[in-house]
């Protein structure tokens, strides 16, 4: 019996469930929530790791979109998915710009490091923006249809552990 509910005690799973419920109960229409989530996903695909949530909330305030959904959308980029997202973004940008793959600098002077950074940052940004638009469009299309269905779900409370 104890093992059956052990997975429910994990803080990460509990936090995900609480944030999912908060997103579902967010005020606004399905369109507003979907726009906020798509905005967050777009920002999550750009190479702004570490400040994505701040940027998403700031842009959501400027555009008057759903701030909670925008903050939730940046979770697409997390420590487990970031290497794959940024690698795909870099390769996409590199191919679109017709650039060669970046090679590690052999001499550490200002000019070499500046060129290395530019050769890495430019394709990563261009690829991130292209993938961001694509993923944001897909997120919006799926979310605007899913929110009305998900809002009707009754999510049961998790049983609390018994105190001895």
Explain what this protein looks like in three dimensions.
- With 164 residues, the protein is an all-alpha fold.
- The protein has one domain (10-151).
- Helices cover 68% and strands 0% of the residues.
- Helix 4 (52-63) runs antiparallel to helix 5.
- The longest helix has 42 residues, at 110-151.
- The model has no long low-confidence stretch (mean pLDDT 82).
- The chain crosses the membrane at residues 37-61, 68-89, 120-144.
- This is DUF2062 domain-containing protein.
- Keywords: Membrane, Transmembrane, Transmembrane helix.
- InterPro entries: DUF2062.
* First-to-last CA distance: 15 Å
Counted up, domains total 1
Q: Summarize model confidence as the mean pLDDT.
A: 82
Number of helices: 7
Strand content: under 5%
CA-atom Rg in angstroms: 20 Å
Tally of extended strands? 0
Helix content: 55-70%
Listing every helix as H and every strand as E from the N terminus to the C terminus, the arrangement reads HHHHHHH
- Gross morphology is elongated
Which runs of at least 5 residues are low in confidence (pLDDT < 50)?
A: none
Largest sheet: none
Structural class: mainly alpha
Protein name: DUF2062 domain-containing protein
InterPro entries: DUF2062
Domain DUF2062: 14-149
Keywords: Membrane, Transmembrane, Transmembrane helix
